[in-house]
Write a structure and sequence with these properties.
There is one protein chain. With 316 residues, this protein is of the alpha/beta class. 35% of the residues lie in helices and 17% in strands. The protein has helices spanning 13-23, 41-46, 70-84, 105-113, 136-139, 156-164, 170-179, 209-221, 224-229, 239-245, 250-253, 282-287, 303-314; strands spanning 2-9, 28-34, 55-57, 89-96, 99-101, 119-120, 124-125, 142-145, 151-154, 199-200, 206-208, 256-257, 262-264, 292-294. Helix 3 crosses helix 8 and helix 6 (156-164) crosses helix 7. The protein is globular, with a radius of gyration of 20 Å. The model has no long low-confidence stretch (mean pLDDT 92).
């Protein structure tokens, strides 16, 4: 039985190599997607000591823009390659190159081996009170995302009014004042897929191989989810949750565990990006039942990763 890791990386080749080396066992398989904007050769060199039978670079690379649909395309390309490999795989763990294990790879694989067919994915039905506007501003408008700073949404006036309705400072307060003179517009005009419920949660999840096959099979025969989410904002936090939680197959839905196996520090403000993990996180992080943490900027400071390794070695 094999365990696959699908890792999306865009920088810090040495950090990625350290991550892979900590997860590397005889039963591990690694599928690495390198952002199209980055040169792949430095990553290949950094990972050259990992046995080629266990290491695969995703062939069809995508230019990933935060909040855009290429994050989904890159993930699906990796899942397709994993499914096509022909190995008997238990689970696929979705990770970024800025993740790091906080339990040993052996403990993680033992946990997954004890939970066959289980998919671990955080989810909330939408609208959800845990994010601004319940997340409907991400879902119920047509979004075109070209770069991090060039993001268009339609119908425009309706979107601007919704986004700025509760603004108290900054650019959205200015937009609120400017759009106050415009005629009222119907909020959230774009309807979701008929008879389906949208869901939201962390993109970093652990999928059973049965769930992976379901995702690929469902998208091959029904293009509605794919086409709908192409024009949403931050689809990676909605796409897989919505697809899996709307599954009609009992074997899929009954094996979904509403739990992320990642430790993530979002901070008190719950911004769009998690805080970098620091030494102050270590007591709570290591005492948690999570297996992986994010995110780390190890190229700037190796202290945190060294401390994690030290604690894991002491507990062996």
């Amino acid at each position: 039985m094999k365990f696959a890791y699908l890792i999306l990386a865009h920088k810090n080749p040495k950090q990625l190599a350290r991550l892979v080396s900590r997860l590397d066992t005889k039963d591990a398989l690694f599928f690495i997607h390198i952002d199209q904007k980055a040169a792949q050769e430095p990553f290949e060199q950094a990972l050259s000591e990992i046995a080629s039978a266990r290491l695969h670079f995703v062939k069809e690379r995508k230019n990933i823009v935060w909040g855009g649909f290429n994050m989904i395309r890159a993930t699906l390309n990796g899942l397709k390659e994993i499914a096509a490999l022909g190995e008997t795989i238990s689970h696929v763990t979705l990770m970024s190159g800025q993740d790091y294990p906080i339990k040993t790879a052996e403990l993680y694989q033992a946990f997954l081996f004890q939970h066959p067919q289980k998919t671990f994915i955080e989810y909330f039905s939408m609208p959800t009170p845990s994010i601004a506007h319940g997340g409907l501003d991400r879902l119920s408008y047509y979004h075109l995302i070209f770069t991090r700073k060039l993001h268009l949404a339609f119908p425009l006036f309706s979107f601007l009014k919704v986004r700025s309705a509760h603004a108290k400072q900054g650019k959205w307060l200015l937009i609120k004042r400017l759009t106050g003179f415009l005629p009222s517009a119907k909020p959230y005009p774009r309807k979701f897929i008929p008879s389906k419920t949208p869901y939201y949660g962390s993109q970093w999840c652990t999928l059973s191989m049965e769930a992976v096959k379901y995702i690929l099979g469902e998208l091959a025969k029904d293009t509605r989810f794919y086409n709908y989410f192409k024009y949403t904002h931050i689809p990676d936090e909605m796409f897989f949750q919505s697809l899996l939680l709307n599954a009609e197959e009992k074997a899929i839905k009954e094996n979904i565990v509403n739990q992320s196996l990642h430790y993530i520090n979002w901070g008190a403000t719950k911004s769009d990006h998690p805080n970098n993990v620091g030494l102050a996180d270590i007591p709570q992080m290591m005492a948690s039942e999570k297996f992986i943490a994010r995110k780390f900027e190890a190229e700037n400071d190796m202290t945190v990763l060294n401390k994690i390794d030290e604690m894991l070695l002491a507990n062996k």
